[in-house]
Structures are given as structure tokens and as C-alpha cells.
Write a structure and sequence with these properties.
Blueprint lengths: L20 H4 L22 E6 L5 E4 L4 E8 L2 E5 L2 E5 L4 E4 L5 E3 L6 E7 L8 H5 L8 E3 L5 H20 L4 H22 L17 H14 L6 H8 L3 H12 L3 H18 L4 H7 L5 H12 L3 H6 L4
Antiparallel strand pairs: 1-8, 2-7, 3-6, 3-8, 4-5, 4-7, 6-9
Helix pairs in contact: 3-4, 6-7, 9-10
């Protein structure tokens, strides 16, 4: 991808307050024409936020950053995974790391595009419990979820304001608002699942978010092993039939579908880091490169080798 260093004068379509902080001060300038998908987090930090007004389309690609798009003015169309979303003013789309997506462009307007390194989040206990939310893009608008949309919009607005002001502790504060937005989405999801997984150990069914989080952590750490439904059920102390019902209601997937997704997600990370298809297959628990390629194509719609060509570092 060709790059071109822009001066402040070449960004006249962007309000001065939304020009990249490192471009304003003249150190380590970034390519504004490349606008969204260069994963060059500012100042070796964990994020980059763009005020984007580009008409250009951005073809299918993937990267390791969590991407949040909030439409400010007019509409913006994005394909994420196997779905196409038309964002109206105020709409929000959250694209999980390594999900194939493309920005269709072609419409005059503006939007914030936020790229976030999720590594700092993974050390938190709560991160594992939101893993099911990372199985698909999350689309929010005021019509479908008015209260949640208002809360998440405010958090993202604060994040953008702090990022572009770029005062002391800007990264810490910006990241905290983005985490608050993610927490609000997770809490809304939990509100719909409390009857499935009661949020305390004293419930009649004896299941809790903590126990479920522990299980997801276990799967995440042992996905390459021969984990069975019986093993997972025994880990949380339930019969496999009762466990299967709870697991499906919470994650939307049966146990083996979820395990395969974990393996594919891990494979995407390895492929992005230029590990061979054969080595990736065996490192992620598949019995053969053929079985891996078949599962990968079913999940993503493309072959592992094709996926590598869509990687952006």
C-alpha cells in the first residue's frame, strides 16, 4: 500500500480539532489518505482514532485491532464478516479483531473510526466472559436499543474528545471510555441472559458468570487440546445435557461450534504473523491441514492462504 505524508494544509476537509495529534505537532506524521486501516497506534500506544471524511472505498482486509465505526454525518456502508451494514447518522458498528471487512465509501459524510489494541483488556477477568460477543460484529442504533445506544455514544464521544485534545493521561482516559462502552454492551447482553446463567452461586441452578468465565478461560487456554463436551461439562460440574443447553443459550453456539471458532480465531492471529498454513493447523488443534482449511473456509468464506493476503499490519 503506497503512503504519502500529508501536511496540515492537505487536510482542509477535516476540522482542525480532529487532525491527528502527531500530525499537528510534526513528529511521526501519519498518512491521512490511508485514513483508517494502518495499524500504527499513536506514539506506540494502544489506539488510533480517525475523523474520517474519505470517499474512497477500502477493499476487503483484516487486522488485529478492534475497530469501532460511529457514523457522524450522512450514511456509511460496511461489510463485516458475512453481513452488510448501512450505518445512518449516529449508528455504531463494532468489528472484532481479525474479522474480514471492507468499507464501501462513495458517500460524502463523516465518521469516527477507532482502532483499539485489545491486549490490555485480556488481562481482566471480565474479558473472557464477553468472548461470545466477539463472534460477530455488534451493530447499535437508537431505534433498536435506545438506552444502550445513548450510553455507548456518550462513552465514544468522550473517548474521541480526549484523544484529540491529547493532554496528559490522554491514552489512559481514552482507553477507559472505550472499555466503558464495551462494558455497557456486555452488561446489556448479560441482562438478557441472567435467567440462563444466574449471577450468583446461591441460585437454584448453582451456575454463575464467574464459573462460566472460568470455563471460557479454560477453553481459550486449551483450544489446541482434545477438549470434549464431557470434559467441559465436568469442568463446571454439570451433566453434558444440562451443560449443552446452558452453553447454547449463552453463546448462541453449541460447544463444538464455539471450540472451532476459538481455534479459527487463534489461527487468524498466527496466519497474520506469517505462520505457515500447515504449522497453523497443528498449533490450533486440527488433525490435518485439510481439516483446518475446510473449517477455516466454512467460518470465513475464504481459504487460509487467501486470508493471509488480506492482512494489514
Amino acid at each position: 500500500m503506497d503512503t504519502k505524508i500529508l501536511s496540515v494544509n492537505e487536510t482542509d476537509d477535516i476540522p482542525v480539532k480532529y487532525i491527528q495529534p502527531d500530525l499537528r505537532r510534526g513528529s511521526n506524521p501519519v498518512d491521512t489518505a490511508d485514513f483508517a486501516e494502518s495499524i500504527d497506534f499513536i506514539d506506540n500506544s494502544h489506539l488510533r482514532i480517525w475523523y474520517n471524511t474519505q470517499l474512497d472505498r477500502y477493499d476487503i482486509h483484516q487486522h488485529g485491532a478492534l475497530e469501532i465505526i460511529q457514523c457522524i454525518d450522512n450514511i456509511y456502508t460496511v461489510t463485516a464478516g458475512k453481513e452488510t451494514y448501512t450505518l445512518n447518522q449516529g449508528d455504531i458498528l463494532i468489528i472484532p479483531p481479525h474479522m474480514l471487512h471492507r468499507l464501501l465509501g462513495g458517500v460524502k459524510g463523516s465518521r469516527f473510526i477507532m482502532l483499539i489494541d485489545t491486549a490490555p483488556m485480556t488481562g481482566f477477568h471480565d474479558y473472557q466472559i464477553i468472548a461470545p460477543l466477539m463472534n460477530h460484529a455488534v451493530y447499535l442504533n437508537s431505534a433498536k436499543s435506545p438506552e444502550l445506544h445513548i450510553a455507548v455514544s456518550r462513552f465514544l464521544q468522550h473517548a474521541a474528545e480526549i484523544y484529540f485534545e491529547h493532554k496528559a493521561m490522554w491514552e489512559f482516559n481514552t482507553y477507559s471510555y472505550i472499555m466503558s462502552a464495551c462494558a455497557a454492551i456486555a452488561q446489556d447482553y448479560f441482562a438478557d441472559t441472567e435467567e440462563v446463567i444466574p449471577n450468583n452461586e446461591n441460585s437454584s441452578e448453582g451456575f454463575s458468570f464467574d464459573k462460566f468465565s472460568s470455563l471460557l478461560t479454560y477453553i481459550n487456554e486449551h483450544y489446541m487440546d482434545n477438549i470434549t463436551l464431557e470434559t467441559a461439562a465436568e469442568y463446571v460440574g454439570f451433566s453434558k445435557y444440562y451443560f449443552s443447553r446452558l452453553f447454547k443459550k449463552y453463546t448462541g453456539l453449541n460447544f463444538y461450534e464455539y471450540l472451532t471458532k476459538c481455534r479459527i480465531h487463534a489461527a487468524q492471529e498466527l496466519l497474520t504473523n506469517h505462520i505457515s498454513v500447515t504449522e497453523t493447523a497443528f498449533q490450533t488443534g486440527f488433525h490435518s491441514p485439510y481439516a483446518f482449511s475446510r473449517a477455516f473456509r466454512k467460518e470465513t468464506g475464504i481459504s487460509p492462504s487467501k486470508y493471509i493476503s488480506y492482512s494489514i499490519s
